[in-house]
Amino acid sequence: MAKDSGQATVSSRVYEILRPYAEGIALTPETHLSDDLNIDSIELVEVGVALEKEFSNKRFTITGLKSCPTVQDLVKLVEQTVAAEQVQSV
User: Fold this and answer.
1) Selection from 89, 63, 81 nearest residue 14 by Cα
2) What is the number of other CB atoms lying within 10 angstroms of the CB of residue 66?
3) Which residues pair with 70 in a beta bridge?
4) What element of type H or E holds 88?
5) Contact 35/23 with Cβ under 8 angstroms?
6) pLDDT value at position 33?
7) One-letter-per-residue 3-state SS of 49-82
8) Are 70 and 32 in contact (CB under 8 A)?
9) What's the confidence (pLDDT) of residue 85?
């Protein structure tokens, strides 16, 4: 995957990370991570590690991840984290 951090790319990269948890469920912005995808706390840590690897070692705390009930919320968290890192590096 390309390491571009454009909004559409961020969203598609998050969806790719979540796809293995979907098992026949269509991922939408409203898909609930725990209720629809059955992601438990250990799997949420795995998602966080995958996000950190995918987004050049950006840090995603378990508290931040737990504050994201839906796919859309998770995409927003990643976008904000990537944007914050870009501002700090300027």
Assistant:
1) 81
2) 13
3) 32
4) helix 71-88
5) no
6) 98
7) HHHHHHCCCCCCCHHHHHCCCEHHHHHHHHHHHH
8) yes
9) 65
Place of tokens 């300027």: 90
Which of the residues in the chain have pLDDT under 50?
1-5
Find out whether 45 and 89 touch, Cβ atoms under 8 Å.
no
What residue ranges define each of the domains in the chain, with the CATH number in brackets? 7-88 (1.10.1200.10)
Task: State the pLDDT at residue 83.
Answer: 87
CB atoms < 10 A from the CB of 71, how many? 22
SS3 of residue 18 by DSSP: helix
Q: What is the pTM of this model?
A: 0.85
- The Cα–Cα gap between 59 and 82 comes to 9
To which residue do tokens 């571009």 refer?
4
